[in-house]
């Protein structure tokens, strides 16, 4: 399909142009890591949306709804509601009191080395989990789309990895931001067009649309079954369905405000007021998008059908297949290019957050005790890290193969972020008696428990699965255990130690977080 | 920030009545609305998970309670965000006044 290839290449050319333009402007740490803090509110709103709505949203949720109906929509709801946590308690304090990373807040009044070491490890873990999901999505997409080109799954994963390394190494945060903005515009328009086409298919009659969704037929074990896709329970089934839903909900709601690649976006704007405005813009876009997943998902279920999707790339290809059936090859190519753009933009955001954290938190503050060995060393280390992170993610994504549902993989990344990051961010901002030990216990406890539970959950441990045994933990998502555990460990660590300096600094952090006095300034022109 | 902010300044600002009023006002909005949206949100997976028969009840045509409740979450989220944005303008004014009174400066300039 040469049209698809053409559209892919057009987008790649545009983003490389952006990167070239940005590379001239990304000199110095503040420019490289935070785009000079001169991104405007609506631009950052679009960029947050572009950073956040990943392959999981566009390919994953559409696929889950197309296969299982209402249960997939639960992801959509959680992904938006989560932004209230970001808006109310995290965005403004972070911009006011931090510099480049989430650890800036946690380390503000605590001992920097242990806190930043763990924060950096958490950032790398969450970003890698998230990135693998995107790579799997990209590989599956290219595999289906450019099947005759001989690129294949592995080739596609390597290609995406190479591109994101170029964006981040040469263009820094400025290039990443504009790639995300372009992607957000493409994704919103593509989704809107698809939704209109779905409604058009039903004569713009909502009742007809929902009627179709209430009786969806497909093949199951050689028999035709008909299910009401508006009803819950097709994916999350007894005996653990209800707990699974709650656990997933907790991961989504508390995870978003702990996602490093989202948090660092607030450092790209001039002040907290703009950070707040950008969250609001993002919420309007993100909300509109997730409402439209109704049309994408039920549209794919009713117009394409589960059987045809299964024969053409599987669950993650529901939205592109919908475009194909509704409007033919060219629109299919366009929607696939949108999905590809979506993945590239998110992957770039993840890479820069991981490399910023490694360079700023680990290299400068842990290894060199907060003193940069030479000017611009931090930026150099970040660029090298981007290479390494890219290579590692490529390798893992190729090992995993194209099978896994990407929304589900991202759900796990959210669980780690919610368990390991959010508790310490909240407690460092709002609890005077929070200590270094509390932060380390909280981050370590949240990280290790969520990872351990994922490994012994049905996702990995299942008869015939990656670990061939009955799962020790019955739920698909660890949030319901690991999030309270993250909070509990942070609490226990703090009450068993006392840190007078941390207590004394609380007033400073609190005043700074609330007023912006002494906040990092945007660079001048 | 051209001037140096000292430990005493942070203390002084935190003690100022205007600052305390701002924090009280913020807390008065953020704490109850956070409790509200957490309860409202988690009611969805709880009802869908434990009372599926109730949530499958069709309300408008074939559209059931589960879908309508899920959809209402979007409206709830946007409404709360809008209310916060409106109120936050007052926080900004109060914060600027605090800094002008205590430091002779504005925070974000």
Largest interface, per-chain counts? Answer: A-B, 60 and 55 residues
Number of alpha- plus pi-helical segments of chain B: 4
Low-confidence stretches of chain A: none
The number of E-state strands of chain A comes to 2
Continuous helix count of chain A: 21
Mean of residue pLDDT of chain B? 90
Shape label of chain A: globular
**Beta content of chain A:** under 5%
Straight-line N-to-C gap of chain A: 45 Å
- SS-derived structural category of chain A: mainly alpha
Which sequence of SSEs, written as H and E, runs from N to C of chain A? HHHHHHHHHHEEHHHHHHHHHHH
Overall, the morphology of chain B is elongated
The rounded Rg of chain B comes to: 22 Å
Please describe the structure with a list of short key phrases separated by commas or semicolons.
heterodimer, A: 525 residues, mainly alpha, 74% helix, globular, B: 109 residues, 4 helices, 2 strands, 79% helix
């Amino acid at each position: 399909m040469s049209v698809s290839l053409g559209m892919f290449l057009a987008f790649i050319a545009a983003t490389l142009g952006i990167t070239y333009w940005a590379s001239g402007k990304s000199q110095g740490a503040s420019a490289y890591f935070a785009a000079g803090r001169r991104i405007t509110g609506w631009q950052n709103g679009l960029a947050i949306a572009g950073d956040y709505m990943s392959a999981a949203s566009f390919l994953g949720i559409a696929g889950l709804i197309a296969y299982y109906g209402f249960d997939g929509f639960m992801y959509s709801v959680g992904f938006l509601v989560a932004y209230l946590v970001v808006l109310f308690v995290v965005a403004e304090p972070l911009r006011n009191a931090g510099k480049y990373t989430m650890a800036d807040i946690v380390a503000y009044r605590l001992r920097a080395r242990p806190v930043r070491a763990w924060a950096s490890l958490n950032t790398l873990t969450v970003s890698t989990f998230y990135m693998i999901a995107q790579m799997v999505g990209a590989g599956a997409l290219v595999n289906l789309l450019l099947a005759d080109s001989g690129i294949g799954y592995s080739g596609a994963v390597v290609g995406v990895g190479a591109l994101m390394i170029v964006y981040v190494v040469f263009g820094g945060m400025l290039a990443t931001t504009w790639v995300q903005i372009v992607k957000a515009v493409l994704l919103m328009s593509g989704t809107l067009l698809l939704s209109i086409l779905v409604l058009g298919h039903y004569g713009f009659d909502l009742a007809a649309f929902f009627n179709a969704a209430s009786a969806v037929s497909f093949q199951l074990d050689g028999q035709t079954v008909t299910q009401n896709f508006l009803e819950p329970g097709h994916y999350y089934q007894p005996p653990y369905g209800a707990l699974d839903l709650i656990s997933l909900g907790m991961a989504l709601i508390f995870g978003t405000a702990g996602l490093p690649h989202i948090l660092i976006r607030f450092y790209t704007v001039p002040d907290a007021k703009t950070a707040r405005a950008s969250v609001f813009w993002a919420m309007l876009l993100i909300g509109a998008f997730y409402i439209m997943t109704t049309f994408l998902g039920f549209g794919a279920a009713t117009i394409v059908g589960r059987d045809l999707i299964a024969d053409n790339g599987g669950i993650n290809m529901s939205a592109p297949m919908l475009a194909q059936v509704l409007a033919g090859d060219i629109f299919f190519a366009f929607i696939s290019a949108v999905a590809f753009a979506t993945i590239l933009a998110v992957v770039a955001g993840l890479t820069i957050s991981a490399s910023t954290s490694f360079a700023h938190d680990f290299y400068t503050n842990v290894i060199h005790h907060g003193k940069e060995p030479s000017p611009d060393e931090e930026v150099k280390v970040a660029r090298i890290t981007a290479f390494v992170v890219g290579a590692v993610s490529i390798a893992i994504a190729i090992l995993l193969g194209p099978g896994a549902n990407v929304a589900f993989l991202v759900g796990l990344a959210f669980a780690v972020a919610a368990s390991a990051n959010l508790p310490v961010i909240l407690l460092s901002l709002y609890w005077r008696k929070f200590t270094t030990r509390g932060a380390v216990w909280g981050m370590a406890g949240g990280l290790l428990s969520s990872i351990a539970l994922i490994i012994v959950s049905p996702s990995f441990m299942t008869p015939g699965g990656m670990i061939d045994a009955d799962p020790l933990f019955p739920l698909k998502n660890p949030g319901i255990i690991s999030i309270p555990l993250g909070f509990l460990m942070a609490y226990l660590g703090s009450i068993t130690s006392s840190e007078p300096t941390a207590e004394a600094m609380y007033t400073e952090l609190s005043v700074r977080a609330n007023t912006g006095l002494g906040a990092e300034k945007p660079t001048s022109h | 920030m051209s001037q140096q902010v000292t430990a005493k300044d942070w203390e002084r600002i935190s003690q100022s009545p205007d600052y305390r009023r701002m924090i009280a006002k913020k807390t008065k909005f953020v704490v109850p609305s956070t409790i509200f949206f957490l309860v409202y949100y988690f009611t969805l997976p709880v009802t869908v998970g434990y009372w599926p028969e109730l949530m499958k009840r069709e309300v408008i045509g074939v559209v059931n309670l589960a879908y309508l409740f899920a959809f209402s979450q979007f409206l709830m989220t946007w409404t709360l965000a809008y209310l916060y944005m409106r109120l936050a303008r007052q926080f900004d004014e109060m914060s600027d006044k605090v800094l002008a009174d205590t430091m002779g400066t504005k925070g974000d300039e």
